[in-house]
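Support request, please re-run this one:
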Amino acid sequence: MLQLQNISKQYEGKVVLDEVNLDIKKGEIVSLLGPSGSGKSTLLHIILGLTKMTHGKVLFDDQDLSHVSMKDRGFNIVFQDYALFPNLNAYENIVYGLRNKKNLTSKEELQEYIEFLELTPHLTKRISELSGGQKQRVSIARTLVMKPKILLLDEPLSALDGVIKESIKQRIHAIAKEFNLTTIIVTHDPEEALTLSDKILIINEGSIVQYGTPYEIMNFPQNDFVRSFILKQLQIKRQNIHHLFGEQYA
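Re-run finished. Output below.
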């Protein structure tokens, strides 16, 4: 279990995160949802160890990781821009992190990840020859081979459209469930969070506004901000609301 206890962050006297508390069970998919500047990416980076908090604790399986370096936490992130090496082909990108950890992932496991993400036909392609969806799958495979304890994704669907976006969303969900992998996703899109997550943490101005299942948030919004942000501001498609939550929001 991942536990965040009283996480706060200030930049130059400005409060970015204010006493955030959160428990995430193993294998859960949790979206950090909020408008731009709400503090969700900062929270993700604190979990990863990329950003230092002002005070609070990050616990994983009862071990305090608050002062453990990013490389020693065993968490891995898929960045919004993929962060792939353009001078390497797809396969070389996938196995890049295994150079110094050769026994971390077996050949059989590596092949399983490649086949699961349907990357076999693209392994020898340069990064410039891949579509956006293929780049995202390579980035995810590169992260999976490192056997992360927690998978972190920063706006993983924002650069994708249409069918490709839906395909990647389904694969992220399938990966989390297939490998029982705790997955934390930053997104500004309520529809993504509602259709992908087990639970959603809504953040506004550095504070938790609501934390619950998609059903709870849709049917029992705790305040006007949640109601407006979810239902009005981003205008979630009516057919998805009907499919997920019934006649009340059709």
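Strands lie at 2-11, 14-24, 29-33, 55-60, 63-64, 75-78, 150-154, 182-187, 199-204, 207-212. The first helix runs from residue 40 to 48.
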